Predict the structure of Adenylate kinase.
Amino acid sequence: MNIILLGPPGAGKGTQAQKLVEERGMVQLSTGDMLRAAKTSGTEMGNMVAGVMARGELVTDEIVIGLIREQLQNGSEGGFIFDGFPRTLAQADALGELLDEFGQNLDAVIELQVEDDILVARVVNRAKEAVAAGQSARADDTAEAMTTRLMEYYKKTSPLIGYYHAKGQLKSVDGLGTMDAVQADIAAALND
Ligand code: B4P
């Protein structure tokens, strides 16, 4: 099974992807994690994306599509969870082409629905927890960067809801409950 986790920043895509990995042995492909790893690698690409991410903007389609292509080549018996990808219509079209190329299907798109004020509270809280634990907070986990991240989401990513709804692949889940409650709702949507 290959699925997409779609939703605004802080909706819990990464959190729920982890649970699906444990539950179903799927492979998580998080473009956010890949880009954060690139950032710390000191490569030209890493330096280029660091500022873009800190401002809360989206990295170019070309870079993220290239990252996903590399990972798809490795295959996965349990299937892939696309976590935070696609985020633009161009990325969605590219994913369709890549899945065709690798002989794979897309089984479902899970949209996590959470209101903006809760999203901001979650990421600001994550930053506070990181600092309290003596770690550095994510550069984009600030109320200021969240304003840009949410604008980017509504402008560039939210059109994917209609895109996948039209294909009959969209399943919307309330992302406001506890992490376990959201996990149970995703399981129910996938078993539907
Ligand atoms: P991502 O790493 O994808 O992060 P995200 O959207 O902010 O968070 P996510 O929805 O995964 O929330 P999480 O589980 O972490 O993106 C970061 C940046 O990378 C983007 O802004 C962009 O610059 C770049 N990028 C990534 N993919 C890209 C692409 N395809 N194209 C272009 N650019 C791209 O949860 C957030 C917090 O909420 C956590 O603290 C968690 O513990 C908490 N939480 C989760 N579920 C909860 C629940 N049910 N109740 C209470 N708290 C909960």
About this structure: The longest strand covers residues 108-113. The chain is about 60% helix and 10% strand. The pocket of BIS(adenosine)-5'-tetraphosphate is lined by residues 7, 9-15, 31-32, 35, 53, 56, 58-59, 64, 84-85, 87, 91, 122-123, 126, 140, 149, 178-179, 182 (CB under 6 Å).
